[in-house]
Amino acid sequence: MYIPQHFAEHDQTEILRFIAANAFGTLVTVENGVPFASHIPFLLEQGDTLTLSGHLAKANPQWQHLTANPQVLAMFQGAHAYVSPTWYEGAGVPTWNYTAVHVYGTVRVIHDTAWLQAQVESLSHCYEGDTPNAWIPSYPAKMLEAIVGFEITIESLQAKYKLSQNRSAADQHNVRQALEASSGENERGVAALMAKHQE
Q1: What is the number of domains present in the chain?
Q2: pTM
Q3: Is 183 a domain residue?
Q4: The domain spanning residue 62 has which CATH number?
Q5: Can you give the pLDDT of all 199 residues of the chain as single tens digits?
Q6: What span, in angstroms and rounded, lies between the C-alpha atoms of 115 and 51?
């Protein structure tokens, strides 16, 4: 990912928080020179090594790409918003403020039923939470045979927080105010990130 220095985020704690908060990501592989992507939820594990886990439908050919070439990219996107040059005190052009993280790593494909059961249980618990009516997965082995698991050992993280850091303090203030006044959730999310990073 192209990351000018003033947009680079290096704080690993913040980057991992970002992944966990935006865990519906994009798994990218290349098969015979052609990119292939799946949009799926991931689980981030922060043990001795950092890993991302997930699963794919067995009917999805991407799991075979993982077997053939274990080098993968997972992409996560956060809040994003259009920025008008009319919000600047000086000259400018239309742009987009956004947050994104790219994860590179080596993947292993997993067919083990016990692992798959644990993975879907963890994923369900993550999104169902501890509410009284939380759904608890109970899959027969035959259903688990319809999916293929994977675990990515994270080797590098790239994070880009493009939040008008290249503009003057006045321009940053104006952009933030305009986004805060928006009715859009993404716009207000970018404004909140700008406020946090300008502290």
Answers
A1: 1
A2: 0.92
A3: no
A4: 2.30.110.10
A5: 999 999 999 999 999 999 999 999 999 999 999 999 999 999 999 988 999 999 999 999 999 999 999 999 999 999 999 999 999 998 889 999 999 999 999 999 999 999 999 999 999 989 888 888 888 777 777 889 999 999 999 999 999 999 999 999 999 999 999 999 999 999 999 999 999 887 6
A6: 15
d(CA 77, CA 99): 6
For the chain, the three-class secondary structure string (H helix, E strand, C coil) is CCCCHHHECCCHHHHHHHHHHCCEEEEEEEECCEEEEEEEECEEEECCCEEEEEEEECCCCHHHHHHHCCEEEEEEEEEEEEECHHHCCCCCCCEEEEEEEEEEEEEEEECCHHHHHHHHHHHHHHHHCCCCCCCCCCCCHHHHCCEEEEEEEEEEEEEEEECCCCCCHHHHHHHHHHHHCCCCHHHHHHHHHHHHHCC
Please indicate, yes or no, if residue 189 is contained in any of the structural domains.
Answer: no
Query: What CA–CA distance (Å, rounded) separates 71 from 66?
Result: 8
Show the tokens assigned to 139: 């899959």
Tokens of 182: 């928006």
Q: Please check whether residue 86 lies inside any domain of the structure.
A: yes
Q: What are phi and psi of 59, to 5 degrees?
A: -70, -15
Range of the domain at 13: 5-165
Give a yes or no: residue 195 inside a domain.
no
User: With contact defined as beta carbons under 8 Å apart, do 9 and 16 qualify?
Assistant: no
